[in-house]
Design brief:
Pfam families: PHO4
Radius of gyration: 23 Å
Subcellular location: Membrane
Order of helices and strands: HHHHHHHHHHHHHHHEE
Membrane topology: Multi-pass membrane protein
Mean pLDDT: 77
Main location: membrane
Strand order of the largest sheet: 1-2
Number of helices: 15
Number of domains: 1
GO molecular function, one term: phosphate transmembrane transporter activity
Strand content: under 5%
Structural class: mainly alpha
């Protein structure tokens, strides 16, 4: 290294803080369905996910290179710009965690970086082709591809297991869920941990500590992997509750199909260097699995709130980052003011979260608001495409009141089993 200034040290620490929030924000991606179906105990699940996130961080640097070499023009980007980008990303992560919404940490980081770069050097500082092909298009395609794959996999799973013994089948799928959850955690490490590696590498290049076009140093890879693993172990219990219970109620077969589909999409994207949102992929897969089982219910009120958060992530993080960059232009005192604001805001959000504590003891038992929401038009239409799979008929039985218009007023009330 040629130099390592104070501002560069602040940027590295802030980047690792973002990586930590990324870890607990995205724990639900790998373990929500495994916890909700009872395949693993909550603390065991997050510990397993943390270890595999750390391992995944060492498997590839393609996504890190997309961030550090492709998204924004390295020339003219100061460390203060990257610090401002991280402020926008961290605050958005914490706000969405507070309300239990599985938004994209990846797009919060992208939005922050874009907003700060544009505020500092103009729109020309952003490489539009990379933004469209490796960020925006995957953001749209990932949940659709994962959702369709999970829907088809769920239906195939029920079809193939129609003659299997119910208890033995459930036990086998729980084991499959554990394996597929581990694969999602590994995939998350190969994708999300690398985004922080890319940001730190970009900061080191901007600060003159690394030559342009350098790959992330080993210490950057290790520190980013450890930060995301620690955040994962602490568990983002609020978002785990939303993903595991708020979107749909999953059986082991559906959990296995959802996690396997999501992991496949994430690993393929990491190999291609796409800055994919694992949250989008897993959420799409969970909804697809919910639609894949006859009688399954996707709670569209929760899904709608989630979609709104997805749409707001990039512009909201970009706006906060742009404002932070504007304040940082004032010099050292401006940077210090932004740092104080970040710490104070983070502490305030944490204090608010203590009013209703969600942890490993109540993440499964607590009912998500709106959990009794009816299936709705979309779910009903999707579920009616195929007859119910054999072996689950008992689960699909419903009791409805007999038509009031045809009932004898003197006769006792009757019910009809469908």
């Amino acid at each position: 290294m040629e130099s390592f200034s104070l501002i560069l040290a602040i940027v590295v620490v802030t980047a690792l803080a973002f990586d930590f929030t990324n870890g607990f924000h995205d724990t639900a991606n790998a373990m929500a369905t495994t916890i909700s179906t009872g395949a693993l105990k909550p603390k065991v699940a997050v510990a397993m996910s943390a270890v595999l996130n750390l391992v995944g961080a060492f498997l590839s640097v393609e996504v890190a290179n997309t961030i550090s070499k492709g998204l924004v023009d390295e020339t003219g980007i100061r460390p203060e710009v990257i610090f401002a980008a991280l402020v926008g990303a961290i605050l958005w992560n914490l706000l969405t965690w507070l309300v239990g919404l599985p938004s994209s940490s990846s797009h919060a980081l992208m939005g922050g970086l874009i907003g700060a770069a544009v505020a500092s050097a103009g729109i020309g500082a952003v490489n539009g082709d990379v933004l469209v092909t490796k960020v925006l298009l995957p953001a749209i395609a990932a949940p659709i591809v994962a959702g369709v794959a999970a829907l088809l996999a769920t239906r195939m799973t029920y079809s193939l297991g129609r003659k299997a013994d119910g208890k033995a089948s459930a036990k086998g799928y729980r084991a499959g869920q554990i394996a597929s959850a581990g694969l999602v955690s590994l995939a998350h490490g190969t994708n999300d941990a690398q985004k922080t590696m890319g940001i730190i590498t970009l900061a080191l290049i901007a600060g003159g500590s690394l030559a342009p076009d350098s790959d992330p140093p080993v210490w950057v890879i290790l520190s980013a992997g450890l930060a995301i693993a620690l955040g994962t172990y602490l568990g983002g219990w609020r978002i785990i509750r939303t993903m595991g219970r708020g979107l749909t109620d999953l059986q082991p077969q559906q959990g296995f199909a959802a996690q396997t589909s999501a992991a496949t999409v994430i690993l393929a994207s990491s190999h291609l260097g796409f800055s994919l949102s694992t949250t989008h992929s897993v959420s799409g897969a969970v909804m697809g699995a919910g639609l894949g089982r006859k009688g399954g219910v996707v709670r569209w009120s929760t899904a709608t709130r989630m979609f709104v958060a997805w749409g707001l992530t990039l512009p909201a993080a970009a706006l906060v980052a742009a404002l932070a960059e504007w304040v940082c232009r004032a010099g050292d005192w401006g940077t210090a003011l932004v740092a104080v604001f970040l710490v104070a805001s983070s502490f305030a959000i944490w204090r608010i979260s203590r009013r209703e504590v969600v942890d490993h003891t109540n993440v499964v038992d607590t009912e998500e608001p709106g959990s009794d929401e009816p299936a709705g038009v979309v779910t009903t239409a999707m579920a009616a495409v195929s007859p119910p799979p054999a072996g689950v008929t008992e689960d699909l039985a419903a009791t409805v009141p007999a038509p009031a218009a045809t009932a004898d007023p003197k006769a006792p009330s009757a019910t009809t089993t469908v």
